[in-house]
Specification:
about 375 residues, alpha/beta, seven-stranded mixed β-sheet, two-stranded antiparallel ribbon, globular, binds nicotinamide-adenine-dinucleotide, binds zinc ion
Length: about 375
C-alpha cells in the first residue's frame, strides 16, 4: 500500500493506492474518518462492477447515475441530493463517489453543496481519475454552454484507488489516461521518467497489472504541484502542458472525436516541437519524448481540423486569461510557464503536426 498525503480542507488527507484496496475499503475509511454513515454514488457501468460491492462493504445505500459526461449536470446533483435527503443525511455522513472523473467531479460537487458541505471520499476507477481528477480538490459539473462551468473547491477527505479495476477499463480509455501520465513525467522527469520507461509500453498494450507504479508516480507529481498552489494561481499552470492545443482540438470537434487524453497527446507533441524551436530541448531529447507518446497511438486524426477553427478557441481561452496565450513548454528537467508563442509560429507547428500519421511514428516531427 502506498499512501500519498494530499491537501484537504484544513489538513492533509490520505490517498491510498494498492492493488486490491477496494477489498479493505471499510478499514481504510474507518481509520481515516472514523465510524460514520456512508452513502455511495456510482455510474451505471461501474456500479455493477465495483459500486455495489463497495456499498455492501460499507453498509451503505447506493445511488446510480447514468454513465458518461452527459450526466455531469445539475440534474444528477439534484438526484444525488434527493437520494441523500430521502435517507435523512446528516452533516457527519460521508458521500463516496466511485467511478471515473465524471462521477468524482459530480459527487464532490454534490458533497460541497449538500447541507453547505459534507465530507466525501473519491474512489477513482479510471486511470485519468486516479492520476488527475481525484487530486486537487476541483469539483463541478457542465452546462450546455461549456464544460466545468459550475463548481467548487471541495477536496475529498480521503481518496482510495485500486489499480486492479483498470483491468475492466476500455483499452482506449486506458491509453488516453496514459497521456496525463506522460505529461506528468515531462513536468517532473526525475520522479517519473524511469517508471515510465519500465511500464508505459506494457500498460498501453493492455497490461493494466503494470499500472500501479505509474499511478503512484503520476499521482505524486500532481499532488506535489497542487500542494504548492491550491487555488490555481501559479505553479499549477504546469499541469496545463499539452492542454492549450488539446482543449482547442476537443472544442473544435465538439467533444465528439477525441478522448481528453488523446487530444492532450497531440498537444504534448506540439509543445515538444515548440520547445525544440525555442532551444529549450535538443532534438534528441524532443525525439525521446515523442517516442514516449507513441504507445498512446493510434490517435484520432487532426489533418481535417483547420488551424482557423482551433485559433478561435485558443483566442477565447486567451481572453479568459487576460490577453495572452500562456503556453507551457517542456525543457530539460521540467517545464517553463507562460512561454511566448506567436500565432504564426503556433499555426506553423500545427501544420507540421498535421503531416504526421496518427499511427506514428512521431519522431519525424523533429
Ligand atoms: N477535477 C479535476 O481536477 C479533473 C481533472 C481532469 C478531468 N476531470 C474530469 O474528468 C472527467 C473525465 O473522466 P474519465 O475520463 O474518468 O471519464 P468517465 O468518468 O466518463 O469514465 C469513462 C468511462 O469508463 C467507465 N468506467 C470507469 N471506470 C471503469 C472501470 N474500472 N471499468 C470499466 N469501465 C469503467 C465509465 O462508466 C465511463 O463510461 C471529465 O468530466 C473531466 O472534466 C476533472
Ligand atoms: Zn488533462
Amino acid at each position: 500500500m502506498t499512501t500519498i498525503e494530499l491537501c484537504g480542507r484544513g489538513g492533509t488527507v490520505p490517498y491510498h493506492i494498492a492493488d486490491g484496496a477496494l477489498v479493505g475499503i471499510q478499514r481504510l475509511l474507518h481509520s481515516a474518518l472514523g465510524t460514520r454513515r456512508y452513502f455511495v454514488v456510482s455510474d451505471a457501468t461501474v456500479a455493477p462492477l465495483y459500486g455495489q460491492d463497495v456499498a455492501r462493504r460499507l453498509g451503505a445505500e447506493l445511488c446510480t447515475v447514468p454513465a458518461g459526461e452527459g450526466s455531469k449536470r445539475w440534474a444528477s446533483v439534484e438526484a444525488i441530493a434527493r437520494f441523500l435527503f430521502a435517507h435523512h443525511v446528516e452533516r457527519d455522513d460521508v458521500l463516496v463517489g466511485i467511478g471515473g472523473g465524471v462521477v468524482t467531479d459530480m459527487v464532490g460537487f454534490a458533497a460541497a453543496v449538500t447541507l453547505r458541505g459534507i465530507p466525501w471520499v473519491a474512489v477513482p476507477t479510471t486511470l485519468l481519475g486516479m492520476v488527475d481528477a481525484a487530486i486537487g480538490g476541483k469539483t463541478g459539473i457542465d452546462l450546455d454552454l461549456g464544460k466545468n462551468l459550475i463548481g467548487a473547491f471541495w477536496a475529498p477527505d480521503a481518496v482510495v484507488a485500486d489499480p486492479l479495476v483498470l483491468l475492466t477499463l476500455d483499452q482506449r480509455q486506458l491509453r488516453a489516461g496514459l497521456a496525463e501520465v506522460v505529461k506528468s513525467a515531462m513536468i517532473s522527469p526525475s520522479a517519473l521518467e524511469g517508471v515510465l520507461d519500465r511500464a508505459l509500453e506494457s500498460v498501453a498494450h493492455g497490461d493494466a497489472l503494470r499500472a500501479t507504479e505509474l499511478v503512484v508516480g503520476a499521482a505524486r507529481v500532481k499532488a506535489e504541484i497542487v500542494a504548492l498552489d491550491e487555488r490555481e494561481s501559479g505553479p499549477r499552470e504546469a499541469l496545463n502542458l499539452g492542454h492549450t492545443l488539446g482543449h482547442a482540438l476537443e472544442s473544435a470537434t465538439s467533444y465528439q472525436r477525441f478522448l481528453h487524453g488523446e487530444a492532450v497527446a497531440w498537444g504534448l507533441l506540439a509543445a515538444l516541437r515548440l520547445a525544440r524551436n525555442h532551444g529549450l530541448l535538443a532534438t534528441a531529447e524532443a525525439q525521446a519524448w515523442a517516442a514516449r507518446v507513441l504507445p498512446l497511438a493510434p490517435l484520432p486524426p487532426i489533418a481535417d481540423v483547420g488551424w482557423e477553427q482551433l485559433a478561435s478557441f485558443i483566442a477565447r481561452d486567451k481572453k479568459r486569461r487576460g490577453g495572452s496565450v500562456r503556453w507551457v513548454l517542456p525543457r530539460l528537467g521540467g517545464v517553463v510557464l507562460g512561454a511566448e508563442v506567436s500565432d504564426d509560429e503556433a499555426a506553423r507547428v500545427y501544420g507540421e503536426l498535421c503531416t504526421l500519421s496518427p499511427e506514428g511514428p512521431f519522431t519525424s516531427l523533429f
